[in-house]
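User: My advisor asked me to double-check a structure prediction for Metallo-beta-lactamase domain-containing protein before group meeting. I don't want to rely on an old file, so could you generate it fresh from this sequence?
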Amino acid sequence: MSASLTILGTAGGGPIPHRAKSGLLLRVDDRLSLIDCGGGIYQRFVDSGHDFNALDRVFISHTHPDHMSDLPVIVQAIYLTGRSTPFEIYVPEEFTEPCRNLLSSTYLFPDRFPCPLKIIGYGDRFTFRRDFELTAIANSHLAKFRTRETGTGMVRGECFSFAFSLAGKWVLYSSDIGSLDDLIPHWDGCECVILEAAHIDWSRFWVEAKVACVGEFIITHFLSEAQAFQIQQNARAHDISNLQTAHDGMTKSF
Ligand SMILES: [Zn+2]
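Assistant: Sure, here is a fresh prediction for Metallo-beta-lactamase domain-containing protein from the sequence you gave:
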């Protein structure tokens, strides 16, 4: 088995030139899956020469636009390829119906799609086992919305990190988190932790990274280029050698 992981986009929520928003591309042999698809991920996928017929599914960590705004245009691309094999969209449970409505509002009707288009709600510790293994780990990024009436029916404040195994190596993708407490219990033993920089208590991170049993930290989802540069400087200052900052298209093979 040959597997790889490509960080298609590395920008945080704000505007940063030349970086797309959050999105990971997982390849196992010749089959592809996406985790998150913020703005620019569709174009990164196309520019990389990948075929939408090889893309089997997308997992959405949470519904902030910088993690899922390209979903409709990806579904549209799948429609236009005339695909016949199923395409799966894994979403936080509370977004299952709103996702169906969102796609229908763009005239991409899930029930009248040329191929089976499955919108699958998942929750904490949902485990996917097929060409690779993936487990969803609930985090507290949107916890403040659990007590707030949003008027959308989405009252659970669901956001998930993902642990997944490629060719026997475990990778942990933080997505946005509430605090490092969401992540630290899960990172020991991982070959790679892909850490989104936007919500990190850095003074704590440097202490925890020192004692973590993690092969490598790859930092992404930057607020600015200056932040990416500062993280590199701070890693050196704290004598952390197993950390690098990501760029769009960074690929790790397994
Ligand atoms: Zn977010």
